[in-house]
Amino acid sequence: MSLLQVPSSKQEEMIKQELGENPGDIERGVIDLRSMCAANPHLPRPDAIDNHIFKVFIRGCRMDFERARNKFEAFCYARCRYRDLYIHRSLNEPPLSDVAKFLDIVPLPKLTDEGLRVTIFRVRPGYPESAVDITSAVKAILLISDTRLFDEKLILGDAFIWEASNVRASMAAYVAGGANAIRRSIYLAQGAYPQRMRRIHVVGAAGLVGSSLNLMRSCVNEKVRNRYYLHNKIEELLDHFPARMLPMEWGGEEESFDVLTKKWRQRVEEVRDYLRNFNELCQVAPEPKYDNDIYGTAGAFRKLEID
């Protein structure tokens, strides 16, 4: 059962207007993506993909069919080219089961007033050092992102909250060790997912978190860098998000982090077979076209534009 609430009728009208969605656009976009899949032997058969997934890509690309085609191709090819990031499809089994011991990954059920989906990444208080694995955390984030695609209906865009108040100095070494996975995930998020990143809030970013923040900001363009907001205290988030949607630990009215993370682990299990089957349909990819491919030149990425 989906954990994500749909927009109100008023929000739906506002979001569609902002996205430039007119009657018939979604239907034409679905036909376009299905035709692409039918014509490309490297992509899953169109009858193997639920139309809902196509709709999420079309809306995430603001009705730009060419951009939706490019992103959906990259979304499929990533499972072949970066098999290591997608091989594990459960949060309840090793190695991803340990991620929950040090990092909460929580897409919030309610939308903001303007229609944004908020996802919280919170370093847990008192986390065991033995559980810290940045590469596994990246895999868990991508897994939940894939699950969200299965459930998301209509949103204006995304807002991320990174809560780093509990980070210890030793985390810097773990981040450095997982830098390659971090870079790949950021570029995949921009180039292979139907994501419109509107705001990124970072809470408690002490000096030792600076290198991690700089790494993330170096991977995005200026437009996205200008959407970063830095906060010293959790309470400052209430100036940007309504209390009705934030977890109770943060002075909000939503369920606790423990309850929400448990629900997301269960939701991933519910769609696990679908996600595994999708991966199996994406086991072949053509050679990258380095001049315009999201993967850039061999062994590197190029900086991506993002809406």
What does this 3D model show about the protein?
The two termini are 30 Å apart. It is built from 12 helices and 5 strands. It has helices spanning 9-19, 25-39, 51-60, 65-81, 83-86, 134-151, 171-177, 179-191, 210-218, 222-225, 257-270, 272-280, and strands spanning 103-111, 116-123, 157-163, 197-203, 228-231. With 307 residues, it is of the alpha/beta class. Helices cover 43% and strands 11% of the residues. Strands 1-2-3-4-5 form a 5-stranded mixed β-sheet. It is globular and about 50 Å long.
List keywords for this structure.
307 residues, alpha/beta, 12 helices, 43% helix, disordered C terminus
Short summary:
The chain has about 300 residues and is α/β, with parallel strands linked by helices. It has helices at about 10-20, 25-40, 50-60, 65-80, 85, 135-150, 170-175, 180-190, 210-220, 220-225, 255-270, 270-280, and strands at about 105-110, 115-125, 155-165, 195-205, 230.
Low-confidence stretches: 290-306
Structural class: alpha/beta
Strand content: 5-15%
Number of helices: 12
Describe the main β-sheet briefly: 5 strands, mixed
Task: Describe the secondary structure blueprint for this structure.
Blueprint lengths: L8 H11 L5 H15 L11 H10 L4 H17 L1 H4 L16 E9 L4 E8 L10 H18 L5 E7 L7 H7 L1 H13 L5 E7 L6 H9 L3 H4 L2 E4 L25 H14 L1 H9 L27
